[in-house]
Design brief:
This protein has 301 residues and is of the alpha/beta class. Helix content is 38%, strand content 21%. It has two domains: 164 residues, P-loop containing nucleotide triphosphate hydrolases (Rossmann fold, 3-Layer(aba) Sandwich), CATH 3.40.50.300; 108 residues, K homology (KH) domain (GMP Synthetase, Chain A, domain 3, 2-Layer Sandwich), CATH 3.30.300.20. The structure holds guanosine-5'-triphosphate and magnesium ion.
């Protein structure tokens, strides 16, 4: 135990490159929500990986993008904050998209924060070997990194090697969290994320991005089941119509998919009571943003 290694490792990159998928891959289980649509992650979320020789506190972040509203600004700020003072940054690049303008923006942020960086070229299953090498070459000219890795978060290819290298680059030190703790976020937040993921999966265009989910409470019933009322906020009444669907078909589908996953997470029968409310321009309003992204503390710093 004396030479346990421990430290903080932040994942950054443009939206949709597979940051959250990589964290899930390291844990070989789903801790973070993932979707094929960009800007899925809205928070800085810590996931704590503990084994016999190390404790790695992975910090997932929202994809770096040009903010178009207050929520976007808060997301960008969360990502920038999350690279400060950490032991290592994983700069994740999508092999299919390559090293473009958004990566230059990330590189600038990392250079300003003087981060020790590993370049992670993910989604290598989507491209030929030659393209991977070209991305690496281009990245090498445009930013500084200690090492580069090729990964596929879906199959787990390259993740063990990366995990071992991360450990070797962490200082010796104590555990920061209890060894059985997996995330620093409250259960109510995890539940709201699962609901949000189903909305990302089932709705299109601007609807998922205009949606926030707040779990109002988690109540234990006398029969041992859990009653979880939650509110889905949208920005317009037309979006409310879409989220509810014809004769309530959409909200039912969201609820069914979310409930199955929440029951697995909580290992308990759950009654998920979803309501949809319109809150005009909530993405400009701090109250909902702060509740939804659960980062009041971050904003104060
Ligand atoms: N083919 C392939 N798809 C991947 C890989 N890694 C992730 N994906 C897919 O890419 C999409 C985005 O993955 P996420 O993990 O949500 O990406 P992210 O970087 O966290 O995105 P934001 O939270 O929006 O910043 C999902 O559809 C994933 O299934 C990979 O290695 N190969
Ligand atoms: Mg994500």
């Amino acid at each position: 135990m004396s030479n346990l290694r421990s430290g903080f490792v932040t994942l950054v990159g443009r939206p949709n490159v597979g940051k959250s998928s990589l964290v899930n891959g390291f844990f070989q289980r789903k801790l973070l929500i993932v979707s094929e649509k960009p800007q899925t992650t809205r928070n800085r979320i810590r996931c704590i990986y503990t084994d016999n020789d190390a404790q790695i506190v992975f910090c997932d972040t929202p994809g770096i993008h040009e903010p178009k509203h207050r929520l976007g600004e808060v997301m960008l700020k969360a990502a920038i904050q999350a690279v400060k003072g950490v032991d290592l940054v994983l700069f994740v690049v999508d092999a299919a998209k390559g090293f473009g303008k958004p990566e230059m923006q990330v590189a600038q942020i990392l250079s300003a924060a003087r981060c020790k960086t590993f370049l992670v070229i993910n989604k290598i299953d989507l491209v030929e070997e030659q393209r991977r090498r070209l991305i690496l070459e281009k990245a090498g000219k445009r930013c500084e990194f200690q090492k580069a890795f090729f990964t596929c978060a879906i199959t787990g290819h390259g993740l063990n090697t990366l995990l071992e290298e991360i450990k070797e680059n962490l200082p010796e030190g104590p555990m920061f969290y209890p060894e059985n703790m997996l995330t620093d976020r409250a259960l109510s937040f995890q539940v709201s994320e699962i609901v949000r993921e189903k909305i990302f999966l089932l709705t299109q265009e601007e609807v998922p991005h205009c949606t926030a989910v707040i779990v109002d409470s988690i109540q234990k019933r006398p029969n041992g089941t859990l009653y979880i009322p939650a509110t889905i906020y949208v920005e317009r009444s037309s979006q409310k119509g879409i989220v509810i669907g014809k004769n309530g078909s959409m909200i039912k589908q969201i609820g069914t998919l979310a409930r199955a996953e929440i029951e697995e997470l909580l290992d308990c029968k759950v009654y998920l009571d979803l309501h949809v409310k319109v809150k005009k321009k909530w993405r400009e309003k701090d109250f909902i943003i702060l509740n939804e992204v659960g980062m009041r503390d971050d904003l104060d710093t």
